[in-house]
Amino acid sequence: MSDFIEIENLSFWYKAENAETPILKDINLSIKRGEFVAVVGPNGCGKSTLIRHLNGLLIPRRGRVVVDGLDTGMENNLPFIRRKVGMVFQNPDTQLFASVVEEDVAFGLENMCLPQFQIRDRVDEALARVGMSEYRDYPPHRLSGGQKQKAAIAGILAMRPECVILDEPTSMLDPRGKREVMEAVRALNTCQQMTVIYVTHDMTEALYCDRLVALVEGQTVFTGLPGEFFMSPEHLCRAGLRPPAIKELVRALIDAGIEVPTGINSPEELVGAICR
């Protein structure tokens, strides 16, 4: 897979007087086309600031970000970058404002001045991709939290980006809503090979990504496989995070002398390994 996003020596601060204490410090990172990357870390570590650089909402103070060959520091590139990289925020209500779902999904397309037949086709396609076709005529306030977030994702997908960034999309949802959104996002990556960058505080969600990036105080302290991160007390301590419950249990069994594979990610897998 080729690199889709390249981050080189990225440093950022919001105000000139804060240059000595940047929010992001010399970050180097590449994200491959079709990859599913989780970004984790404690509150205030710079996760949201980092991802806002990836579609040009923020511009590096030092270093650079290149998206599919386009430097975000060049203003003429920004419209093209933002069509390639869509963003879904934490609160879906900030992205849903029309009277019915299909109008929300069509909003960005209308701003692109596409003909009506193309808008209809893209809206149909985007709603189908997140399992929301039957809710197209619903007003957003009648949707559950998970359905609202999927409608917001559909609005981004209708623009046909090559990459979707999700900033803690399940943090305001109940377990059912979290499951609905996570299943939809995983399908985008596995079935449609879309590049996904997923910021989360839920370590169980991070288990299912291809790669995990951990930030602490604006610096990357780990980049690698989620399983490697969650089975390492050193990495977890440095990032100030707890592993998913299933990984804690696997570690406890190994420490007790019971041989189980370290790659187990679910209770079902653990039961199967123990019963063999």
Tell me the β content.
15-25%
CATH architecture: 3-Layer(aba) Sandwich
Number of domains: 1
Structural class of the helix and strand makeup? alpha/beta
In one word, what is the shape? globular
- Head-to-tail CA distance between termini: 36 Å
CATH T-level topology:
Rossmann fold
Radius of gyration: 20 Å
Strand order of the largest sheet: 6-7-8-3-9-10
**SS field, number of helical segments:** 11
- Spans of 5+ residues with little confidence (pLDDT < 50)? none
Q: For the residues shown, what is the average pLDDT?
A: 92
What letter string, H or E per element, gives the SSE order? Answer: EEEHEEHEHHHEHEHEEHHHH
What can be said about the biggest beta sheet? 6 strands, mixed
Number of strands: 10
At the first level of CATH, the class is Alpha Beta
**So, the CATH homologous superfamily?**
P-loop containing nucleotide triphosphate hydrolases
- Helical content stands at 25-40%
Task: Give an overview in words.
The protein is of the alpha/beta class and 276 residues long. It has one domain (3-226): Rossmann fold (3-Layer(aba) Sandwich). Helix content is 38%, strand content 21%. It contains eleven helices and ten strands. Strands 6-7-8-3-9-10 form a six-stranded mixed beta sheet. Helix 6 links the parallel strand 7 (163-167) and strand 8. Helix 3 packs across helix 4 (116-129) and helix 3 runs parallel beside helix 5. The chain is globular and about 65 Å long. The two termini are 36 Å apart.
